[in-house]
Amino acid sequence: MTVSVATLGFPRIGLRRELKFALESYWAGKSTLSELQISAAGLRALNWTRQKALGADILPSNDFSLYDHVLDTSAMIGAVPARFDWDSDTVDSDLYFAMARGAQGPSACGHSHDTTAQEMTKWFDTNYHFMVPELTAGQTFRIASTKIFDEFEEAKALGYTTRPVLLGPVSYLMLAKGKAVEPLALLPQLLDTYAEILARLAKAGAEWVQIDEPCLVLDLTTEQRTAFERAYARLATRGPKLMLTTYFGGLGDNLDLVADLPVHGLHLDLVRAPEQLEPAVAKLQPHVLLSLGVIDGRNIWRSNLPDLYWRLKELAGKRDLILAPSCSLLHTPVDLALETGLDPEIAQWLSFAVQKIEELAALAKALNEGEDASFAAFSASRIAAVARQTSAKIHNAEVASRLAALDERATHRTSSFAARREVQQARLALPAYPTTTIGSFPQTPEVRKARSAHIKGEIDDAAYEQYLRVETRAAVKWQEEIGLDVLVHGEFERNDMVQYFGEQLAGFAFTRAGWVQSYGSRCVRPPILYGDVSRPYPMTVDWWRYAQEQTDKPMKGMLTGPVTILNWSFVRDDQPRETSCRQIALAIRDEVQDLEAAGAAIIQIDEAALREGLPLRRSEWQHYLDWAVESFRITSSGVRDDTQIHTHMCYSEFNDIIRAIGAMDADVISIETARSQMELLDAFASYAYPNEIGPGVYDIHSPRIPAVREMTDLLTLAGKHVPPQQIWVNPDCGLKTRKWDDVRPALVAMVAAAQAMRTKV
Ligand code: GLN
Ligand code: ZN
Questions:
Q1: C-alpha to C-alpha distance for 573 and 590, rounded to whole angstroms
Q2: Which atom of ligand 1 is the closest one to the Cα of 560?
Q3: What family, per the record (predicted)?
């Protein structure tokens, strides 16, 4: 019996984000397409060589992408929305990038590209965004991009016979948006094209293809199950062998379905769902090659190799196995070796993409040749695991006892919303349709320059602080001048809404180069939450105080909520997420109370990522929402009745979570609505949401300056869904990505819109 190692996919962006820079230079017209292609080919070659050298036996191809693998799939099968006026046989790079990013005016290729990009949304429960396929009635498919074949050949020329990665047809359709068509109804046509692609890969010499069907870990309807049966009855009987690859959860009630599919191999995510191994082994035919996702592809923790060895030893004696990360390594940073600034004790607990392949290789070697064959790797792994379990850096008894002591009172405000509202109104004396913004003002090139000069030590703390004060003061004065009612300090001192807090809290570490692709060329460096969280000192009070001193209008205290901090970080795997979340909540609660003590009458706690933390299976939603809401309430319940708590959520789908939003009991919630014509207020209306709401009246994602009339129309519309006395007036989200030249006239118009509304009440 043999155990081999596969990787399922490697980070595309490059060790030093080379792809990002190559793309952005090409988009800016500073380099040519062939220069971009040369960089991309260089990265692919490097990735293959590297993975091979690290001990991977099975190398992926077509895991690379210039933008997104779902977009690649759309290009591969010629699913190009009509608005792109596509009239050729192939999707060229102009069209590809237009689908990704939108385009204006005729371009070199002669197409007219005055068109909006495809929609983008989160890839399952990750922070990676994919381009949503758009399909229409009468949709046809044909091979319109040879990328998957080209990359297979490219690897072959370098001496590697790869296992191409293909997004499965059913998941592709389930992720698509259909216009006048139910995407799954297009399955028969799509299967024709997939069959052709597989046949061509087989002809090129591909023995196996990794076919990703992550939708198999979701709740499925009968129709969706049938689609899987049809698809694999058709695709698995001819052509290359198929490694059906599932991840981000367990198969659960879909196991029977999967066990009956005529595929040649199955990959299981044993990090998210270790319990599925036993039933899967019992159900699967003996000839089905099992690929076990035993190393976490979604997180950065080093594994305990001896533990894994003992878990797998018996099975490895009975059947051939492939060991792999739980999912593609796309979601982890590339190489820990770049992290020279990390505390060495913490660094010892970590493993990035490169290290994860080494771990898999050591594990496979031990399973093939006996435990001693990986003696050194195993001892180091065991030592690190024990060190992490017992480290004083992780455990803080005080945090544990505070959490244990939390009772009902800690999660409930003293009085009901109605009673709070009365005293808040008396204290704040705001007009009807009060105006405010979500928090940030433009992070101009100057602001960024000052920040990076400060980081590099080119300007000292005092000079940087002085610069920020000038910016803040100017922003406050300007808000006062244009007549906003509730002001913000502008968040100029913040690099990012999570990082800023993480850097000041105990229990978080930050990487130098731990970049993970978010979308296209955009990467993020998620904080690493490694230990019990506490707040050594107030984080935002000084800036709030400075800003409040500049004005008599109320100045909002501005915080990021615990659920958002959690969801945008790499989190601990040695305790439940909910425990980590409650710890963060306690730290933010301290900050809320300090802001109140300093005199803040309004404190906003942003929960931008609450909804996206919803588990993939519906049966797990309630539990998540319960602890997420409780965490928010821990932060917000320690204040007096006359302190007004705001929250902000930037999305527009509330139906699933409206009860939870109600249970958060924030005095005011601001949400994103401008693009949806206030329709989403339906959810609030049918739930009879009692607290106040600021439905965003203009879309901050666009530089367009909204007319007063548009905003009064939206506010009038909003008043049909919720009582006008409950309505606040604000933009959809923070303004940090905008220019002052857009922000100024837009907010002046927004204030005018509120004033116009007031004359009607
Ligand atoms: N206060 C933050 C800002 O204005 C909120 C951003 C967000 O929720 N995405 O930037
Ligand atoms: Zn927002």
A1: 25
A2: 1
A3: Belongs to the vitamin-B12 independent methionine synthase family.
Identify the H or E element spanning 129: strand 129-131
DSSP state of 322: E
List strands edge to edge, sheet with 556-560.
556-560, 602-606, 644-649, 668-671, 692-695
Q: How many CA atoms lie within 13 A of 390 on its CB side?
A: 6
* Residue 112 pLDDT: 47
Which residues are CB-neighbours of 407 under 8 A, at least 6 positions away? none
Query: Kind of pairing, strands 528-534 and 522-524?
Result: unpaired
Is the pTM of the predicted complex or chain greater than 0.90?
yes
pLDDT digits (tens, 9 = 90+) for 461-477: 999 999 999 999 999 99
The pair of structure tokens assigned to 567 is: 């969801």
Q: CA-to-CA distance for 176 and 182, rounded, in angstroms?
A: 9
What is the Cα–Cα distance from 133 to 169, expressed in whole angstroms?
12
Q: Which residues of 250-276 are buried (b: 16+ CB within 10 A; e: fewer)?
A: bbbebbebbbebebbbbbbbbbbbeeb
What one-character DSSP code corresponds to residue 641? T
E strands within 289-367?
A: 289-295, 321-325
Residue 286 CB neighbours (<10 A): 7
266 phi, psi to nearest 5 deg: -140, 130
Asked casually if ipTM beats, i.e. exceeds, 0.95, the reply is yes
Which residues sit in the known binding site? 17-20, 122, 127, 438-440, 491, 522-523, 568, 606, 612, 648, 650, 672, 733
Burial class for 464, CB neighbours closer than 10 Å (0-12, 13-18, 19+): middle
User: Which are the contacts of 675, defined by CB distance < 8 A and separation ≥ 6?
Assistant: 652, 699, 732
Where do the DSSP E strands lie in 369-492? none
Residue 701 a catalytic site member: yes
Q: How far apart are CA 398 and CA 288, in angstroms?
A: 51
In this prediction, residue 704 carries a pLDDT of 84
